[in-house]
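Budget justification note: compute hours in this period were largely spent on complex prediction jobs such as the one shown. Inputs:
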Amino acid sequence: MRSSFFRILILALIIVSLGVLSIYSSTYQKEGAWQDIHKRQILWAVIGLGCFIVMSQLNYRKLWDANYFIYGVALFFLFLVFVLGIIRLGAQRWLRFAWFNFQPSEFAKLAVIIFLARYFSRKSVDDISLLSGKFGIFRGIILPFIFVAVPMFLIIEQPDLGSGLMLLLVFVSLLYLTNVRLKYIFTLICVLILPLPFFWHFLRDYQKQRLLVFLNPNIDPLGAGYTVIQSRIAIGSGGLFGRGWLSGTQSQLYFLPESHTDFIFATFSEQWGFLGSCLLLLMYYLIIRQGFIIAQRTQDSFGRLLAYGISLLLALQVFINIAMNMGLAPVVGLPLPLMSYGGSSVLVTFIALGILVNIDRTRSVF
Amino acid sequence: MERKSILKILIILMFVCLFIGLVNLDLLQGGKFRRLSDSNCIRLISQSGARGNILDRNGGVIVDSKISYDVMILPQELDQLDRILAGISRILEVEVKDLKSVFRKNYFSSSLPVTVASNIDLKKAIQLGEYKLEEPSIIVQPNPLRHYPYGTLAAHVIGYLNEIDRWRLTKLEDYGYKTKDIVGFGGVEEKYDYYLRQEEGGLSVEVNHRGKFMRVLGFESPQNGRDIQLTLDLKIQKIAEENLSGRKGSIVVLDPQSGGVLAMANYPNFNPAVFVNKRTRLIAGLFNNPESPLINRAISSSYPPASIFKIVVAAAALELKKINLSTNFLCRGSTMVGSRKFSCWDVHGLQDIIAALAHSCDIFFYKTGLLLGAQNIHDYALKLGLGRSIGFELPYETSGFIPSPLWRKINKFQNWFDGDTANLSIGQGDCLVTPLQAANLVSVFANGGYLPTPYIIKSVGGLELSARKKKMYRLPFKKSTFEIIRRGLREVVSDSKGTGNVLSGLDIAVAGKTGTAQVSRGATHAWFVGFFPYNKPKYAICVFLEHGGPGHSASVIAKQVIEAMIKQGLVEDQQ
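Corresponding output:
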């Protein structure tokens, strides 16, 4: 179906362009290398676009065959980060390549989704019904959880709590979409939630601080709470129509930290106001809705789960990031897909969208 | 329901949640956050204009403003601050340490510029202005301060400036006054504060998250206050103050033809500059001084008029035909009123009205007063502008007081006796007048029957006010009444035994009346009221010395003043 290809392509291109505009506005006054940052984002978007077109042509069933390989590569990179990743902003998240930094955790999110989609859509040899309906607690919950837990642990150790928890959330929601029994899922959730107070001791100091600050940003207005306070001011000061492009004082006079990455929504909202922000939300919603529509009309269970997984990944990232910008969620390092500056995120999102389009395209084959 | 539908609803709920969040931040709390955002990056640097000048009748400056320069910086991060302060200290040749401690002392909030040095001279201000090109966070602020070129001159007329107090603030809040505003206290500064007041202007500048100056957003130029021109004549004022010097009391010089105040000198006085320099110890000294130097004695305190009140009694008696030119009373040094003996200060023999005024014979006025009755004296005193406030333009004017039998009955539950009338006839007893009222009283006889309303404001902001002043009031007295009293007042000086004979040595003809007021404690108060030149009076004068001895000493001062005025060519005798 060509229509879903263009629909998703156009929406993604608009969002990416808005992202580039916001990145430009928040960095054009800084000196040196900052000046070119929007150009790099454009380059990534162009590469991402290429990947999108390639992926939309490449039959997604090939991922079924390659899923162990993909999963393996993702784990390999995560280990690599652990060993020789470069440290930036107090976290070891990036791998240095020729002229860019690569963030394997972004890639790992997609890899885990592909892996889970395949895992839950295997069929028995004699029967065409799905195996997942007959899974007991071990094969339904524990085994896939271990496969998720390994990359998750590696990501959380970087430390990148946001991406790690993202994997967990995607896992739980995919479980819910398969035929695994509800009571197993509840058991898993309980097992995860009950020892939380115990895990508190394993959190880094800054993570504890962020959680406390989320509950009350004013306990540390110049430290951990600063970002949230400034980001709320940035969003709120936009008002109905915004302050206009290049006129946002919060982001351009550096009151708002990370204004071109995790807090790009605040930058955008300050300049475009309530109306602009609503429009942006609407576009994200339309892309995600498109993903759900594709998932619903796909007969192939692998394709369906994959489409759900990709849509959920997008939806959760968008929600958590924007909620965090508004102070409705604790601050975790999580980019806003397609908007935030960062090659890995843009690239992976475009690839995921390409897969989504391909699932829709190949639907009729089966 | 299918699991996927539930999931879909969840996703929609997530977006609704974000939407509500946006509504809350942007629409409901948008105004608050806009303000917070502005206060993040906008700094206001206020610049005040100069307060209006106070000028004399010829446009000579009595009080103006002098520009001093303050150095301010925008609060910012420490390492930058150190660099900037080091630069400033190099130029001002002060220790960085000192600058830092001043900075710390004046630091109020991160959003307000901090003064690090004040009152620097022009040369250094220019050097700093050049340094500002490198460090735009420095602000060299011109700061007009009140300047008193003549020190204590006319201090009571002008008043002083100080930080607004609670009481004034509650009254003036609605007119745009704020806490910490500098407002006038006493005198013209207080009464005309609203006109003299400058309007603040200033810069709004944008700073970044480190407090570093980025750009100027807007500028509103400050407005200077309006100038106020007084009727005072600097030369006469100076003469009056020089001759009063050291003696407690007050000298008022009026233009009898209009009521304009030409000089109003008081002692003890004060230097308003101590309030500008914030010399706390000296200020406390002024407030605690038992001599109350801040009081404008010419209008704010009243004293028994003594013999100068005889003018009123004479006018009343002539007007009511109780006496005429040929009425004579015999002065034997004392007389009996009822069972009490009232004495004169001398033995004058047979006196008519003119001689009685000239010699200030008490016996004559006891008898005249008794003929008149207390109520008549009271009524005529009021007609001649005593016992009620003039409605003068400076604050804290007192009305003085003239007693009457009715007042005594109502307020003191006592009867009025003839002895009281006798006392009142020579201006003793409960009777009180201010020096300005006394000068105003004598003006009536100088100009031939018009009661002026003394005023001191000539123009405000270039707008002439004389047209709006109250017209002089023609007293419905007989012409002869004024003429007889005028003659009497002239005799006071010209008669060889006149109480003001000391003034006869002057080149011009002076008329007047002395007074010696008995007080319950201490030396007598000395009065002299008069006008000159006699034929075409240009000036009415009142010299009052608190506990200054006999009226003679006041006439001596008056003589010195008039002498000095003649020497300066202020009085042309057209005889």
